[in-house]
Amino acid sequence: MTKQADRAQMACLKADGPTQSTGSIRTDCLVCGQRNLLNSVLFEALPLLCNALCADAASARAAQTGRFATTFCLGCTHVFNASFEENRIGYTQSYENSLHYSPRFVAFVETLAERLSRTYALSGKTIVDIGCGKGDFLKRLSLISGAQGIGFDKSFEDNRGGAVPGVRFIKDWFGDSYADLRPDLVVCRQVLEHIAEPVKFLRALRAHPGIAPETVFFFEVPNVLYTLRDMGIWDLIYEHASYFTPASLNAAFETAGFRVLDAGTSFGDQYLYIEARPAAPKYATSVDSREIEMLVRDFERAYRDKIERLGDYIARRNPQQIVVWGGGSKGITFVNVVPGADRIRAIIDVNPHKQGRFAPGTATPILAPEALRGQPVESIIVMNPLYREEITSLVAELGFTPEIAVA
Known about the structure:
- This protein is α/β, with parallel strands linked by helices.
- It has helices at about 5-10, 55-60, 105-120, 135-145, 200-205, 225-230, 245-255, 290-315, 330-335, 390-400; strands at about 35-45, 65-75, 80, 125-130, 150, 165-170, 185-190, 215-220, 240-245, 260-265, 270-280, 320-325, 345-350, 365, 380, 405.
- It has a domain at about 290-405: 3-Layer(aba) Sandwich (Rossmann fold), CATH 3.40.50.
- Helix content is about 25%, strand content about 20%.
- The chain has a seven-stranded mixed sheet with strand order 6-5-4-7-8-11-10, sandwiched between helices. Strands 14-13-12-15-16 form a five-stranded parallel sheet, with helices on both faces.
- Helix 3 (about 105-120) crosses helix 4 and helix 5 crosses helix 7.
- InterPro entries: MeTrfase_14 (IPR013691), SAM-dependent_MTases_sf (IPR029063).
């Protein structure tokens, strides 16, 4: 694997911190290399890592920020941050983005694992999970399928959950030094969007000595069409260099030398997935981008309207009686960009590894749902509509009935 792909893989914020911004601007598309670009929303200062929560309020307020210049390629429809600087991003074990504490998300993962196991007859085979995080998905997939699993991620923690027979984790990147591994399935979920050069990364994976013509690759990334059409604006975060459309994801894989087996959307259209095998490179050509271009041109106005509306929502209430539900990238972005949101009482999250920490930028405390019991909470702002029913049920169990709004 290339050094550039190596450095860009998943893990958490380095102890010595990132370097300062150089102010560089990308002028060619990350996927197809074309320079026919359209600029959209500009954020002058977003936290570098939304999922690296801080141990205390002082360090949260001092967290470094980066510039996000939303850019659309009129050639292949890819969306990316033209101001992304790879050398400012580093990952360690403090990076915490597991969603496996939500029943809604666990149900999605179960269905996905069962489908992959059935489709590719994984029993007795070998799975390599690149950027496996804390290992939740790989453990579940191996249990369901009866496959051997090897997870790679420097953010993996040995004390997270029980061991699963036939599954092991390596706190390293998957590269040529592991040439003895012969995976039947390569899994890479919610990683490619973090990579500064996605096509080079894919080419490096394809060139790994353990990859055979029949090896299947399963990738999952955020779906930028959800961001544009359904105004899922809270997913625009600095650590994501790329935002794929179905066309740009397909182009990245074909250009890197893969034949696409299957592709589609999942998790309420918030994710894209693609399944592919090695093949001869097929270089990307321009696609009809007019429909998505219209969405991009409308996006800045719609984004400003939504930010203003939510700022007014907070201004009409006591912010100390408002909480945001969701301590991942959505919640962290919300409190950093919506006027007045830095004064809300707390961010609520069901992940115990987030609780007791603070949001970078605003230093908003992250609390467990139980912390709301007996507290004067007038309003809960839900960051992801897919979790509304789950949150409403949990709030009812806590014994109070606040207003619930979806951001």
